[in-house]
Amino acid sequence: MTEPVDVETPHLVPVTEPHEGTPPVIETDAGLAAAVEALASGTGPVAADAERASGYRYGQRTYLVQLRREGAGTVLIDPIAVGRLDAVNEALAGQEWVLHAANQDLPGFHDLGLQPDRLFDTELAARLLGRPKVGLGALIAEELGFALAKEHSAADWSERPLPEDWLRYAALDVEFLVELRDRLAAELQAAGKLEWAEQEFEAVRLAPAPEPRVDPWRRTSGMHAIRGGQGVAVVRELWQARDELARKRDRAPGRVLPDRAIVAAAQALPRSERDLVALPEFAGKGTRRTSGYWWAAVERALALRPEDYPPRRLPVSTGTPPPPRAWPEKDPAAAARLDAVRTAVRALGEEHHVPQENLLAPAVQRQLAWTPPLTVDEPSVRAALADQGARPWQVDLTAGPLTAALATA
């Protein structure tokens, strides 16, 4: 995805059309076979991007795949029409794929049978170079001097047929990726950071699918305003009912019932369906039509005994640090260690022009401060960092300063 760039900036060259025009969308097996042949005969890295329908459809399904390779041009594929893309993956075996913010697109690619063997992530590269703006449009403007007129990043890409201006947007997302990759790779090499970047790219490429979140209903926006256990139970039942209905309808949950309606019901604790629909947040025509469904969920919560209410907060797993704001009271020594660790990482980030969250993940910093090695020496700190998933370049850069920080905290 690309954020808007001011096309009126004098020194930028506005680009509103792909250089070779907007290709037709591939929607047939024959079209896919021709695209596979073209991509296989191309040369060099493969620029790749994907479009989803976040905010419109349930889940993160991919609705359009964009690929570009020298000698093959740009290819736009409708995976809803043609299905899995294993043939594309086979045609590009061993090639480097260039993506921007690859962690957003790779899960959807994997679902389609696309598994890059090598990866270059232009967003990650820009972060390691200390760029203040790492959006694709900003980087293309800064590095290449082009201004992309972009305005469809939040569109409903499940719509069919896709409008022509949307397809131009999609094609432009891969138009300059390889050129941008070459520029950033040269800058990484000059800064002595290319090996760092390669380790980061490989970590993203091999990252496992995230574990399902425990009690995802607890992330309901506004949940912090719910005080009593019965209200928490209402949130859970309404959230789960919404999720089931959203999945059946293939609609984004927030479009089925907004979070604010769930929270309003949990605060009001209505005693009848009539009371529920009297709430302003349930006054919409669609919500009223399904009021019986929502009332059934509220009734289930109201029927629970107090001992069956879900806990206000999940218990903290053994060894898992609590929220840092609680550290000064729970463990003042750990709070002091965290301050020292953060200070050391921040100083290193400034020295090497790398955001501290990219230099060492905040979760790793917290874990090291909460459960430091029994013996605070550099070998032990190196082992602890590696156990937490820090990459070798991160371990090499931070182990010494962090050992000193823990020893003096």
Automatic annotation (TrEMBL):
InterPro entries from the UniProt entry: 3'-5'_exonuclease_dom, Exo_C, HRDC-like_sf, HRDC_dom, HRDC_dom_sf, RNase_D-like, RNaseH-like_sf, RNaseH_sf
Domain HRDC residues, every copy: 228-308
Sequence segments annotated as region (Disordered): 1-23
Source taxon at top rank: Bacteria
TM spans (from-to): none
Classification via SUPFAM superfamilies: HRDC-like, Ribonuclease H-like
Protein name: Ribonuclease D
